[in-house]
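Hi P.,

Sorry for the delay on this. The queue was packed all week, but I finally got your sequence through. Input first:
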Amino acid sequence: MANIATFLFQHDDTPNRVLYRQFIDNEWVDFKAREMIDFARSWQAFFRSMGLQPGDRVAICLKNSVHWVAFDQGAVAMGLVSVPLYVDDNASNIAYCIQDSGSRAVVVENDRIARNLLKENLKDVRVLSIKSDIEKEADGVENANHVLKSLDKKLEPFELLDLEQNTLATICYTSGTSGRPKGVMLSHKNVIANVDSCFQLDIAKPEDVFLSFLPMSHMFERTGGYYLPLRVGAKVIYARGINQLPEDLATQAPTVLFAVPRIFEKFYGRIQASVKDSRFKRKAFEKLVDVGWRMEQGKGGIVDHFQLPLLRAKVAQPILERLGGRLRLAVVGGAALDSTIAKAFIAMGLPILHGYGMTEACPVISVNRPEGNVPESVGPALPNVEVMLGENDELLARGPNIMLGYWQNEEATKTAIDSDGWLHTGDVAEIKDKRIYIRGRIKDIMVLSNGEKFSPQDAEMAIIGDDVFEQIVLIGEGRPFIGMIAVTANSNEKELIKRANERLQHLPRYIRVRRIITTKEPWTVDNGLLTPTLKVKRVKVIEAFKDRINDLYAEGMGD
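Then the structure:
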């Protein structure tokens, strides 16, 4: 028997423990365990007023907040199924997920999102808005705060059902880089098993402070930045937004951070920019990285032993202060991080643990450990998770964290999970000394017209390490040579191609960029070229630039 909501209700014995901090009405406000449980009880009163029964679905379309936690915990405690949605997604996709899941109610961030949703002809769905100016129900939109307040007299003790382990807890729609999302069904057992496996690694401790900024609708943040700290009683601070992230890091001083590679790529780019005009600063930083990494590998000598504390105090500490000065580790997932960048931060004294997973695995499959951290890998498998290589070196995973299947899509489920219970990840991998090395996506292996094959992700990860490139996509499927689409402020194509190829020297000689398309307009969630988890939608980018791509190859045929 199991229930995810025990993560919250266990703190009923320590009602004054501060679990959350959020910026509200121009000030930081702390929320204690008792307040969070009472808040969840308010949502349970709402669910009862609707006559909802275990197994019914309710959707969440909110920014990271205490509202998100209370709604989710209140719902799953009663056996309801929570359906998290991306607040920055377009109304059509949000409406599709609500209707596909059969959600009976959805709570959204504000009236604008609510009204845009209602234009999508939602049927039999109550739409509640958190940040609402509505006094009474208007055009189908209800003020969530008014609704909850009206139910104050109907509050009951926190309802926590003892559920069968395989009871459906949540349907998570994969953001995907193309096509309609699929609903991943995760059980209470899936979530608890994955959280407990992470707990065994000491990634989170009761005294830790997490800064949450990745969307909680994504299982990486939901497991690592929500369920895990709640499980151990650590405090979570909700960042005000991606634009305020640097300031929030500096002022709130977290000890643990779950992040995507782009955060550290940008930060590393700023470091490089700050030292490039000073030979002394550049040499000092290079010395720090060299000595620090050697010491981390246990290969440092006597001189290194004495140099490192000085280098970290004089060079690293001012840099790490910009991250709050207290970070003891960062877990990076969602995409590959250039090992050069990871090694630099590790050398400075900040362990970056590269992990790997997917929504279908709830999501963590593997993660590096602080001891024996190998940045080129995504670490060993979690406790209780088995991995092996299948046909074409595809990584397979099996364990109590593997999804129940895809919502109302038995055919896709059979394709993803074989008869022996192995989840087919679609990723090409190597396993050496129990560590997993991801080599690319099976479907994303490109074949040039001469038959040469390459993984665009490997090459892209190398190129993006040069801070002249903001975002890139390599092209070349069925073409005579490799081209690149790049978001950059630099318009000197010859220089850009030269710099890109300098980053590819470790790859086979045929993997070189011959032509480039540049743009100064960044790819964003709003223009449809990034997923809500900041992954580039390769197919969409190629579609957006198709005319320029055709021109590029037409011009390059004589090269």
